[in-house]
Each structure stands twice: as structure tokens, then as C-alpha cells.
Amino acid sequence: MKLYHSPTSPYVRKILVLMAETGLTDIEMVTASGTPVAPDAGVVEQNPLGKIPALQRDNGPTLYDSRVICQFLNAEAGADLYPAAPLLWDTLTMEATADGILDAALLMVYEQRIRPEDKRFDPWVEGQWGKISRALDALESRWTGHLNGKLDMGQIATACALGYLDFRHADRHWRMNHPLLAAWEAGFAARPSMQATRPPG
Fold it and tell me: Which residues are listed as membrane-spanning (predicted)?
């Protein structure tokens, strides 16, 4: 199998952490790059949306997005990062919350890097941060018990999302109003799988 990836993608990082935690090693890594306005041609061949990660399987169509790939690799590894229902619904909701944080954070990056300066719209950027802030509040108030439970994909996704906020939006100081979440993240970030997958730069 081949994983089309970028070392700075937080969606890819979810997969890399899963691989490290489950011992998967037989996946070829193919570096890709691109933006919504200039997608990578090689990625487009695998994923018509032009987005990474994309997992080219030995048999069957390429899989995307990160949540699909994570569930597939979890099954391939015979792991239990997606628990049985009813706990599964909490895990999936937490993963969706974390991915929502990433979606909004990435849009903020694109606004600064891709959109011409005279066309940027600050209220739109702040609207994206509003989504992130509300999601952080929810993680702090509703999901602390789950975060401190048995390792699952909800925890991995949350840790990768928080790591991306540090990587691209450190000036927003997300920890300031989220002490429980900050304490949890500090412990989780020390895991070897997280240390090995820190984005460069």
C-alpha cells in the first residue's frame, strides 16, 4: 500500500500515530504537496478531491479521507482504537470534533497564505476561530473522562488537532482557558508515537 502524505498535515499525523501505536510498518510513504487552488497531480489521480491523505491499496480503489483510512488501518492491524458500540459513538464524535478543529484551523492558514491580502476578510477568520474555541470548550467540559480512558482514535485525533494549533496558531494561546485539556495534552504529547510524528519546522 502507498500513503500519499505531507509531513506537516495534521490529518496525516493521525494516521502516522495510529500506525505507530498498532505496529503497522508495511506502507510506502509518498510525499505530496498542493493547495486547493494548485492540487498535486499525483494526488488527484488517487483522490478526485485532490486532498491528502490518500491510501492506495493493493486491491481496490484508493481510500480517503483520514477517518476512512484510520478505520481501515485499525481493522488491518486487528486493533481496537474504534471500540464497540455504544462507546464507539463517543469515539467517533470526538474524532469528528477534532477534525472540525483541523478544518477550521487549516482554512485560517489558507486565508493568510493563498488569498491576496486585499481580499482577506478578518471576520471570516475569526468565525473559524470561533468554531475552534467552541470545540475546545466542549472537549474541556464534556469529554475529559473519555480523554482519560483507554486509548482510542478520539484521543489520537484530539491530540493531533491540539498539536496543529500549537504548530500554526500558537499566538491564539488555546491553553489559557482550557486547563484540563492542556494538562491532558501535555501527557499525551509525551507518547513515543506523538514525539515521532511531530511536524518539522
Answer: none
- Predicted TM-score (pTM) of the model is 0.96
Q: What is the CATH number of domain 87-191?
A: 1.20.1050.10
Condensed to tens digits (0 to 9), the pLDDT of residues 66-102 reads 999 999 999 999 999 999 999 999 999 999 999 999 9
Residue 23 has φ and ψ, to the nearest 5°, of: 80, 15
Using CA of residue 39, residue 43, residue 47, residue 48, what is the dihedral sign?
A: positive
Angle at 107 between CA 101 and CA 110, to 5 degrees: 145
How far is 37 from 200, CA to CA, in rounded Å?
24
**DSSP per position, 125-187:** HHHHHHHHHHHHHHHHHHSHHHHTSS--HHHHHHHHHHHHHHHH-GGG-GGGG-HHHHHHHHH
CATH of domain 2-77: 3.40.30.10
Neighbours of 180 (CB within 10 A): 14
**What is d(CA 148, CA 170) in angstroms, rounded to the nearest whole number?**
24
Neighbouring-strand partners of residue 48: none
Three-class SS state of 65:
coil
